[in-house]
Amino acid sequence: MTARLRAISRRLERHVLARIAQSAFAAGAAWEIALQIPDHGRPFFAPIAAVIGLGAQRGRRGRQALEMIVGVVLGILVGAGLVAVAGTGAWQLVVATAVTSLLATAAAAPPLIRVQAAASAILVVALHQPGADVPLQRLVDALIGGGLAVILARFLFPVDPLELVRDEARTMRERIADALAEVATALETRDAEQARAALRLVDELDDRPLDEAVSLARDVVRKAPRRRALRRRLDALAVVWHELELTAIDARAVATGALRVLGEDTIPAAGLAAAVRAASDAVRTIEPAEARDAAERVRSNAAAVVATLGASVVIHGVIAVAEHALRAADAREEDRRIADELAARGLRRKAVSIGTRYTLSRR
Questions:
Q1: 108 — alpha (psi -120 to 50), left (phi > 0) or beta?
Q2: CA terminus-to-terminus distance, the chain
Q3: Among 58, 254, 286, which residue's Cα sits nearest to residue 172?
């Protein structure tokens, strides 16, 4: 029961609850705004458009809202044109769906544009009534709901691009560190099967989510005005994430070398397992001083090992891991320096603003 409650708690983290609240607010606001338009009927699609626009994963909400609007416009144009030429009916629905899907697919449009285009064309054809203006109403609803979603996602509550990438990096860092710790234990216990399990853990690593998160974060700092100040910090931390991807490559060399060591007749040197465990610590920590201490332990333990063929592979791998950790530590310190600089600049602006208001109030 406790584990289930913890799982539910993780699903309802603060940023998730904030997004739910934003979607709920946008739905109500879109409905009320659309109702103010004379002779607009019941604007059911305006709140739906707002929720669809804000329903994307973090960092993609503004883009999804724009894609939805594009899809609606395409569908309305096709549906209205078809109704004007051929009227309504079953075969018109077939044609409307096919044409919008073909056009969107030929333009390499994202799935949301294709779906919204087809759905809008179907609604225009199916709900057409002489004298009614269904296409215009649906377009206005899409603009209201989608516009609200863009304002909330891009201007008022843009995602934190640094946290967006940190989530993926944290997962990858822990998995690499766990795999290296398994290798160290395998060397200590001379357990080849455990070393193979560690190698499988490394092989299962996938850096694509991290690459996608970095790309998405760069898009956020370019397009969200409130996040542009974080561009320098993102550039600094991009070094950390690049070094993490390289660490995954060298972790595989460490696990492969450990298997070779365990296949040799000699007993693995105690310093070899200690070097691998120190490398695991260097990967796991995010504190620059701790990472440097762990990297130094990697070097000192590796230097004491009499290198066989397999041990040489392990030593080369853990030293490379330590180098990546050192470069990541330097980048983290640069990030903190930039963060302090931005905070100081913000305090100076606030002080100037307060001083200006005080001077004006005395006049």
A1: left
A2: 65
A3: 286
Q: Which two tokens stand for residue 221?
A: 């700092």
Q: What is the DSSP string of 98-110?
A: HHHHHHHHHTT--
Cα dihedral 258, 261, 267, 268, rounded to 10, equals: -40
| Tens of pLDDT, residues 235-288 | 888 888 889 999 999 999 999 999 988 887 677 777 899 999 999 999 999 899
Report d(CA 128, CA 124) in Å as an integer.
6
Q: How many domains, the chain?
A: 2
**Do 142 and 276 belong to one domain?**
no
Q: Are residues 318 and 340 in the same domain?
A: yes
Crossing angle of helices 111-126/134-150, nearest 10°?
150
Count of residues in the chain = 363
- Reading the block at residue 259, the tokens are 């298997």
- The whole-number average pLDDT for the span 121-149 is 83
168 with 144, same domain: the answer is no
pLDDT per position as a tens digit, 108-131: 988 888 998 998 888 888 887 776
DSSP-derived secondary structure letter, 153: I
Q: Are 214 and 266 found together in one domain?
A: yes
The reported pTM is 0.71
Cα Rg of the chain, angstroms = 28
